[in-house]
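From the shared-data thread, chain only:
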Amino acid sequence: MEKLKSKMKKLMLITTGGTIASLEGKNGLVPEMKADEILGHLPGLDLLCQIDSKPLMNIDSTNMQPEDWTEMAQSIHEHYQDYDGFVITHGTDTMAYTSAALSYMLQDLGKPIVITGSQIPIAFKKTDAKRNISDAIRFACEDIGGVYVVFDGRVIQGTRAIKLRTKSYDSFESINYPYIATIFKDKIEYLKPVHSPKNKEAKLDASLCTEVALVKLHPGIKPEFFDFLKNHCRGIVIESYGSGGIPFQGRNILEKLNELVQCGISVVITTQCLEERGRYGYLRSGTESEQECHHSFQKYEYRSHRSEADVDIS
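Structure, as tokens:
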């Protein structure tokens, strides 16, 4: 038995709260379950791998903050040499933001970091939690590197996940990028090759800028709104129309954005459309962006402390 265990992958389970760890409270669901209680609902995992647990927080993911991402990234980096992979249980509402943020903060990963959660608590009789966390643990045993979301049998690149549905088990999709793999009955089928860095040391950069605004354009938005942002932001991500359309007649938003750029504020143009790509980018640099809105938001929070040449953010 000891010989068998020595060949098993060793994983760290990091718990952060969310629906998956919730119990019924006086005013609804409350994230209260401990890591060992979550694992208690998944008998037989000791035959697959060795799992140590680390509770970081027990919060509704609506309350997730950039400081919490820093704590996650630092914890993973601190224990990186001790484990073969990491699984993070997380609430679904901000899971895509967290997966994108960790993708930038932890670079050159040679091991998998897998984020998962559920639409229904693991303690409930009918739940998607058992499948999701079992799939996440199985995928975290793979010999690949990177940050991934595993949900409803799908493996999604960390920078491409989005919560598209509020209640359905298949609530997450991969935007403008194929699924990395699917998982069905303990079998992993890769749909896209994964190239992990070889012989590179994992790097941590926990510096984030929170002085970033995400603005969705709508007909009638007032140009004066951007005067307020001028005094409170270092960068602004604009969800534009279509392929990058910005109003320039009537309520002239384009003029206001140019004023922001002249004040030294970076303005990033993306699109409100979830699929396909247009030509849009950074008004300051003129480069083309190919990412979606919350991806761009996380990218800019990270990029504010780095030069573009320092890190791969694709």
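Residues 209 and 301 are 5 Å apart (CA to CA).
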